[in-house]
Amino acid sequence: MDLINLLAFVVVVALLVISPGPNGLLIAKTVPASGRAAGFANIWGFVAAFYVHGTLSVFGISVLLVQSAQAFFIFKILGAMYLCWIGVKSLLAAWKAQTVVVSADVKKAKAVNFKGAFAEGFFTNVLNPKVSMFYLAAFPQFLSMDASASQAYLLVSAHALINLIWFSCMVMLLSRLKGLAGSPTFSRWLKSVTGVVFIGFGAKLAYLKP
């Protein structure tokens, strides 16, 4: 693979990763309330979704999203509904009286939190048609006509690595705020803001055109 193309791809995806969006918002919501491990679970969900989109792009399956207006519309609405659902859930949690119950099975509770955080990270990206469109429109531009699948996955891995580094730094920074989550006022404020913004992202995605 041409080194210049690889470097150009790295610059493009770095700008995409660091730009404000649902991923950063999800990390900001998860870490102060659920801790560092849950934040990293979000990140691994992001990474898994990138490989799904990369695989669909490599095999040309996701071209349907561009060629079929109906398929794009269904996929877009699913993604918008999911983002709005996260937002509504966050708003409900902000105003619902929380009763802390100490569980005897701590390991089981952590496993459930990890799986839930991973799922949120995964579905936030795998149902995002913007990510699909990036892998359909921009991604192939960095590959030569005779590029192999391994070269394509090299670019996907570069995207995943940049994502991992950036959001890991964010997790480490936000983990220091975990103590603030114990404050009812801060917790309610954080959940309210993230809930409203997620609903906003969902509404914006619903009006996205291919």
UniProtKB/TrEMBL annotation:
Q: Which domain of life is it from?
A: Bacteria
Q: Which UniProt keywords apply?
A: Cell membrane, Membrane, Transmembrane, Transmembrane helix
- Membrane-spanning residues where? 44-66, 73-95, 152-177, 189-208
Which InterPro entries has this protein been placed in? LeuE-type
Its placement in the membrane is given as: Multi-pass membrane protein
Q: Where does this one sit in the cell?
A: Cell membrane
The protein's name is: LysE family translocator
Q: Which organism is it from?
A: Bowmanella yangjiangensis
